[in-house]
Amino acid sequence: MRLLALALLPFAALLTGGAAPERPRAPFDGAWMSCETYRGTQICSYKLMRQSGARVCGVQQYFATNAYYVQRFIAKADGNSARVERICGDPGSETSSYCTGQAPDDAARVGWETTDHMLHACGNRLYESDLDQSFNCATTRRDTGVPKVRSLAGNGPAPEDAAWMASCIEGNDD
Questions:
Q1: Which of 50, 110, 156, 169 could form a disulfide with 103 if both were Cys (CB 3.0 to 4.6 A apart)?
Q2: What pLDDT score does 23 carry?
Q3: What share of the chain is helix, strand, coil (3-state, %, to 5)?
Q4: In sequence order, what are the beta bridge partners of 45?
């Protein structure tokens, strides 16, 4: 019955002259993933993000120098662009600081780091740039972006990273 009522809502709005409620647009809510074959093994990199208003919380995984790197980040969205404000995780090309609670005892740096990265959601693809680099969805090459996917197909974040995302989107940072 509830399904029928939801299906009829747009028609009821037409009859009453009112507009059906529109879902707020959250371009950074979802998963983006690309995979390639490396030495006979499928290697996938992804970004999984949740957006609430301007707040974007994400977990990313990428492969470099024969290892996977996983990081958490918090960004602030403005339209189809988001400025990554803080990042932590496995030290690599994106950060040199472990996240609180995940660092080995001898870690040199623990906690959030600032970054100059930007994310851009253009249609069903995600692009990255530096803060000082101009970016325009209309002029970018489509094949350079990472495609949005419905599922990470078993490549998703560890349970503690998924729990952090749920907490982060509620406004908690650690």
A1: 110
A2: 52
A3: 20, 40, 40
A4: 34
- Rounded CA separation 115/134 (Å): 17
Q: Mean of the pLDDT values across residues 113-138?
A: 92
Q: Whose CA is closest to 9, among 29, 23, 25, 26?
A: 23
Q: What pLDDT, in 10s, does the model give residues 157-169?
A: 999 999 999 999 9
- CA-CA distance, 111 to 103, in Å (whole number)? 9
AA letter at 2: R
How many angstroms separate the CA atoms of 28 and 56, rounded? 7
- Strand ranges (E), the chain: 30-38, 41-52, 55-64, 67-78, 81-89, 113-114, 117-122, 125-130, 146-149
Tokens of 162: 């998924």
